[in-house]
Design brief:
By secondary structure, the chain is α/β, with parallel strands linked by helices. Helix content is about 30%, strand content about 25%. The protein contains 6 helices and 8 strands; from the N terminus they run βββαβααβαβαββα. Strands 1-2-4-3-5-6-7-8 form an 8-stranded mixed β-sheet, sandwiched between helices. α5 links the parallel β6 and β7.
Length: about 210
C-alpha cells in the first residue's frame, strides 16, 4: 500500500511517497539525487522490497523537484527542506533511518545525528566531483556519528569503493555499477542481480539495527 503526503517546509512544499511496511518496526526515509528523482532504480527497488521486511519506506521528493525545477539548490537549502519534513517522518512513532542517493545521501549524513535518526544509508555517496578527488566530501560521511551503510558502484566516477577512507561505516560494493548502479551488458552480473544485491544488503543491514 502506498500514499502521498505533501509537507510544507521553509524551502517549499516537499512530497513523501509512503510505502507501508507489513507490521512495521522502522521507517527508511530516502531522498533523491541532484540529477533525478525518486524513480531512480535503487530507490524504487528498495521501496518494493523492504515493506515486506517490516520497514516502511518513505521516498522523499525535495521542494525543488515538487516545484518542477530542473536544478537542485545549494546544500544548505536541501538540508532545510529535509529538516522541515522530518516531523512527518517521525509521526508513525517508529525509529527513522535517514538515507538517500547521491546528494540525498549527503543530506542524510549532514543532518542525521541532529534530527535523531537511528542510522544513515548512503547510496552512491558522491565522495568527490568526477575527476576531482582532491575535493573530498569524506568529512560528511565520517561525521555522521551514527551506524552508516554505504552502497557504492564499483565504477562510480564520483568515488570508487577503493577511494573511500576507513571509518566506522560499512561499505558494500556493487560490481561494475556506475553512479546510478547501471551495469554494462557484458558484466558478469545482470542489472536485476545488481539490484538484488542492493536490496539484500540493505535489508540485512537494516535488520541488524533492530533492537
Amino acid at each position: 500500500m502506498s500514499r502521498t503526503e505533501i509537507v510544507g517546509t521553509e524551502a517549499g512544499d516537499a512530497r513523501i511517497n509512503w510505502h507501508a511496511g507489513k507490521k512495521p518496526w522502522a521507517v527508511l526515509a530516502l531522498g533523491h539525487g541532484a540529477g533525478g528523482g525518486i524513480e531512480a532504480r535503487d530507490l524504487t527497488a528498495l521501496a518494493a522490497a523492504l515493506p515486506g521486511e517490516g520497514v516502511t519506506v518513505a521516498l522523499v521528493e525535495q521542494p525543488w523537484r515538487v516545484a518542477g525545477k530542473k536544478l537542485a539548490p545549494a546544500p544548505k537549502t536541501l538540508d532545510t527542506g529535509w529538516r522541515g519534513l522530518w516531523p512527518a517522518l517521525e509521526k508513525p512513532g517508529l525509529p527513522v533511518i535517514a538515507g538517500g542517493r547521491s546528494a540525498g545521501a549527503r543530506v542524510a549524513c549532514r543532518t542525521g545525528a541532529e534530527l535523531g535518526a537511528a542510522a544513515v544509508l548512503a547510496l552512491s555517496f558522491p565522495l568527490h566531483p568526477p575527476g576531482r578527488p582532491e575535493r573530498s566530501r569524506a568529512g560528511e560521511l565520517l561525521g555522521t556519528g551514527l551506524p552508516t551503510l554505504v552502497v557504492q558502484g564499483g565504477n562510480d566516477p564520483f568515488g570508487k569503493p577503493g577511494e573511500f577512507p576507513g571509518g566506522d561505516h560499512r561499505l558494500v560494493e556493487v560490481p561494475y555499477g556506475d553512479h546510478g548502479f547501471a551495469v554494462p551488458k557484458k558484466a558478469s552480473l545482470t542489472q536485476d542481480e545488481a539490484l538484488d544485491l542492493i536490496t539484500r544488503e540493505v535489508s540485512s543491514w537494516v535488520a541488524s539495527l533492530r533492537s
